[in-house]
Write a structure and sequence with these properties.
single chain, alpha/beta, Rossmann fold, two-stranded parallel ribbon, disordered N terminus
Length: 289
């Protein structure tokens, strides 16, 4: 049976199961950035419908522990914890994976293909949070806010800290998706001109990689006014010899653009909604892989 046929078969069986009042075992395998009270509120409907719901308050990347937590589960819910092929293949009853994240590269996609497992994500939950951080980091870099703070704390003055205004400037956005659209709206509100570009991934571009040495050199030679970076070619913590840590006029944040109190609630609500939609026989936010 082909993968899409398996997925359709899973949904069809689920629709039939609804008529027979078959209950599902559901486990949230890691914290997703909201309180225990919210977890209980979001899962209340599942439990009232007779489904089993288990929540693990600690994160684990141990493969054997993930297998244990997933054993006998029809639906597992994760965020960005790696959920490799080995774990997926060990789950005989697994039918759906709800991912509280936009990307799904941390999920064992090959095993999901083999078993016809449906994956649903939470795309769009961080559109506002990411676009607002982009604006905030831009203002910081253009108005030297971090440098001004350091100046005050070290007994210095505003000498050499003249900033630049956003109004009247041209902003280039390499993304015409929802995050790019939200970001463009914010810059337009500041009086900037916005140029948007849709980037389509090409193999020759992928092979070039992230050239941090070149970016560092450009910054240190004042060829670039500054750089604000939230996503690196690795997840923090960043090693001490990482080039950008020693570049001039940089503002670095530890992959937090998605992380606000509001976005975590949106993400959790979407993840639970995805589970409910699947149980209703009408899967939402289904990922193609």
């Amino acid at each position: 049976m082909l993968r899409h046929e398996k997925c359709f078969h899973n949904v069809l069986c689920l629709s039939e199961a609804k008529g027979m009042d078959i209950k599902m075992n559901i486990s949230l395998l890691e914290p997703i950035g909201i309180s225990q009270t919210m977890i209980e509120d979001f899962s209340k409907g599942l439990k009232e419908a007779g489904h089993s719901f288990t929540y693990y308050e600690t994160k684990t990347t141990d493969v054997e522990e993930l297998k244990r937590r997933s054993a006998g589960q029809d639906i597992v819910m994760i965020a960005n914890t790696p959920y490799p092929d080995e774990v997926v293949r060990a789950c005989d009853s697994l039918k759906m994976i709800a991912v509280a994240f936009t990307g799904i590269v941390h999920v064992g996609l090959e095993a999901c293909k083999e078993k016809g497992i449906i994956i649903c994500n939470c795309a769009g939950y961080s559109d506002t949070s990411v676009s607002e951080l982009v604006l905030g980091m831009t203002i910081n870099v253009m108005r030297n806010i971090s440098a001004c703070d350091t100046s005050v704390r070290s007994g210095k003055t505003s000498l050499g800290l003249a900033g630049t205004e956003i109004e009247g400037k041209t902003i280039g956005i390499i993304d015409r998706g929802q995050i790019g659209f939200q970001t463009a709206k914010l810059f337009l509100a500041f009086g900037a001109k916005v140029l948007a570009y849709a980037r389509h991934e090409r193999e020759e571009v992928k092979e070039l990689g992230v050239d941090n040495q070149a970016l560092t050199k450009a910054l240190n030679e004042d060829k670039l006014a500054g750089a604000a970076i939230d996503v690196f070619d690795m997840e923090p913590p960043i090693p001490e010899d990482y080039p950008l840590l020693h570049a001039k006029n940089t503002l670095l944040t530890p992959h937090v653009a998605f992380l606000t109190r509001e976005s975590m609630v949106r993400r959790a609500r979407t993840e639970f909604d995805n589970v409910c939609a699947y149980l209703d026989g009408k899967p939402a936010n289904v990922c193609r892989y």
